[in-house]
C-alpha cells in the first residue's frame, strides 16, 4: 500500500495529501475514501463530520488500498488509518 501524509481536510469525506498521488496516468492530491458518505458541508452535521475527520487524520499518515476511479479530480479509493479502514471510524455515515 502507498502511504501519504494528509495535508488538508476539505469536508467530512474529502481530503488532500501532501505528496500527491498518481493512478492510471492521472495525478492529483484530493482523495475521496470509499465506504461512507458524510453529510454536506453546508449542514451542521457536515461541519461535525469535517471536525471529526480533521481531529482524526490531519497531518497523519494514511495508506491507500484499492482505487476505483477519478471523480471530480479526486481519487476514489479505500483509505486506511492506523491499520483500519477509514470508513470504520465513520459508521454513522455508512
Structural commentary:
The protein is mostly beta strands. The chain is 15% helix and 52% strand. The chain is built from one helix and six strands, in the order E-E-E-H-E-E-E. The chain has one helix spanning 44-57, and strands at 2-11, 14-23, 26-33, 61-71, 74-81, 84-85.
Arithmetic mean of pLDDT:
97
Shape type: globular
Structure class: mainly beta
Rg measurement, Å: 12 Å
Low-confidence stretches: none
Arrangement of strands in the largest sheet = 1-2-3-5-4
Largest sheet: 5 strands, mixed, barrel
**Count of individual helical segments:** 1
Fraction of residues in helix: 10-25%
How many distinct beta strands? 6
User: For the terminal residues, how far apart are their CA atoms?
Assistant: 24 Å
Strands, helices and their partners?
Elements: E1 2-11, E2 14-23, E3 26-33, H1 44-57, E4 61-71, E5 74-81, E6 84-85
Parallel strand pairs: 3-5
Antiparallel strand pairs: 1-2, 1-4, 2-3, 4-5, 5-6
Amino acid at each position: 500500500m502507498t502511504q501519504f501524509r494528509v495535508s488538508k481536510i476539505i469536508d467530512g469525506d474529502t481530503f488532500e495529501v501532501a505528496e500527491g498521488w498518481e493512478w492510471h496516468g492521472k495525478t492529483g492530491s484530493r482523495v475521496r475514501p470509499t465506504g461512507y458518505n458524510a453529510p454536506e458541508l453546508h449542514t451542521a452535521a457536515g461541519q461535525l463530520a469535517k471536525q471529526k475527520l480533521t481531529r482524526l487524520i490531519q497531518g497523519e499518515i494514511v495508506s491507500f488500498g484499492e482505487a476505483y476511479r477519478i471523480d471530480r479530480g479526486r481519487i476514489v479509493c479505500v483509505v486506511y488509518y492506523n491499520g483500519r479502514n477509514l470508513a470504520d471510524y465513520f459508521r454513522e455515515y455508512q
